[in-house]
User: Which sequence fits this backbone?
């Protein structure tokens, strides 16, 4: 009420913002809902907005008119020059946001592909066909890498192919002997590799059981996809920070970014196929009994404390320095009697035989 009786709120601005929208919002504070109010802005020709984006001729023209330093300037030319300066800043900011959006669209297209594939994998209970396709593509890429098309047999890298097959599939195959056969072609080597790889995968599936193997395949595939996608996003962010330097070579940074990001995306998919295939061929299941037996066979922990002044172990001659941090041997445990279990690590299988971790089974009660 006091402000209304005095004629309303009077807003005084000491400079103009780069955006006209911000100035209009500040002016709007002086009169809300029809209340009276006034606003006035004071600015200098040395402000950043006028100095960088203002007209260069304005300062010289005002000096010719005989205006002295510190004298107030009230003229429509000033308002017009200020409005043009703000328009230049807004246009520059708009172009910057537009350029950022174009870079984001490149990453967004790749994100759509990955997320659609991930959702499809999560909906499917059986991803064995996808795993088989990945396995075959890995073999095809290895054969194309070490046995180039239209290359002579003397130019084949049979030893490198044999090493990669062992590294990824854990298979010892006589590939060098196959390559030494008379009249053999790369298609025959590819077919033999596919046959041995599929047989090894089928044997592992039979040994694990179909249900367990399907769960392992899906888990490994999703975890590897998430890990590689996070690394790919970090790589794209680093590429985006330095791709502007391509402009010095008269190249469009956006087109260069599209090309480089697509290459990185293809490399990520190739790495996904190879990593998933390698993990599935090297994975082994350990039963809870075997895990407990391995933990029971580990030596007991010994406590030591070395005196920094003398360098002697103060606990070397003490009795009972062994730390019973390991669970008791399986022979001394009664699954039905928790009192015979001793101290069980939280992440160890529960001795009751439920198959759960101790912290999710009997460990919740302690």
Assistant:
């Amino acid at each position: 009420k006091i402000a209304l009786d005095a004629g309303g709120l009077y807003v005084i601005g000491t400079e103009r913002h780069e955006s006209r929208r911000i100035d209009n919002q500040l002016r709007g504070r002086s009169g809300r809902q029809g209340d009276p109010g006034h606003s006035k802005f004071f600015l200098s020709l040395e402000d950043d907005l006028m100095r960088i984006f203002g007209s260069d001729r304005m300062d010289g023209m005002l000096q010719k008119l005989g205006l002295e330093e510190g004298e107030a300037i009230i003229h429509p030319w000033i308002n017009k020059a200020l409005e043009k300066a703000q328009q230049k800043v807004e246009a520059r900011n708009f172009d910057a946001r537009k350029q950022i959006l174009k870079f984001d669209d490149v990453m967004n297209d790749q994100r759509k592909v990955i997320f659609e594939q991930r959702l499809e994998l999560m909906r499917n209970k059986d991803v064995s066909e996808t795993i088989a396709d990945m396995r075959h593509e890995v073999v095809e890429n290895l054969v194309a890498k070490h046995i180039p098309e239209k290359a002579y047999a003397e130019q084949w890298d049979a030893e490198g192919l044999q090493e990669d097959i062992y590294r990824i599939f854990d298979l010892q195959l006589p590939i060098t002997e196959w390559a030494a056969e008379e009249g053999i072609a790369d298609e025959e080597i590819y077919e033999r590799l596919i046959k041995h790889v599929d047989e090894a995968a089928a044997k592992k599936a039979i040994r694990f059981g179909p249900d367990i193997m399907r769960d392992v395949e899906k888990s490994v595939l999703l975890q590897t996809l998430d890990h590689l996608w996070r690394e790919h996003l970090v790589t794209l962010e680093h590429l985006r920070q330095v791709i502007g330097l391509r402009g010095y070579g008269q190249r469009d940074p956006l087109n260069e970014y599209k090309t480089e990001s697509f290459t990185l995306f293809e490399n990520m998919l190739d790495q996904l196929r190879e990593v998933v295939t390698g993990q599935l061929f090297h994975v082994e299941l350990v039963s809870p009994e075997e895990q407990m037996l391995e933990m029971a066979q580990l030596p007991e922990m010994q406590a030591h404390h070395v005196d920094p002044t003398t360098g002697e172990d103060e606990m070397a001659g003490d009795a009972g320095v062994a730390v019973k941090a390991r669970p008791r041997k399986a022979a001394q445990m009664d699954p039905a009697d928790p009192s015979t279990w001793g101290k069980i690590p939280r992440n160890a299988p529960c001795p009751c035989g439920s198959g759960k971790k101790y912290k999710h089974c009997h460990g919740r009660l302690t």
User: Anything to note?
Assistant: Residues 319-328 have pLDDT under 50 and may be disordered. DSSP finds twelve helices and four strands in the chain. The longest strand covers residues 9-13. The longest helix spans residues 76-123.
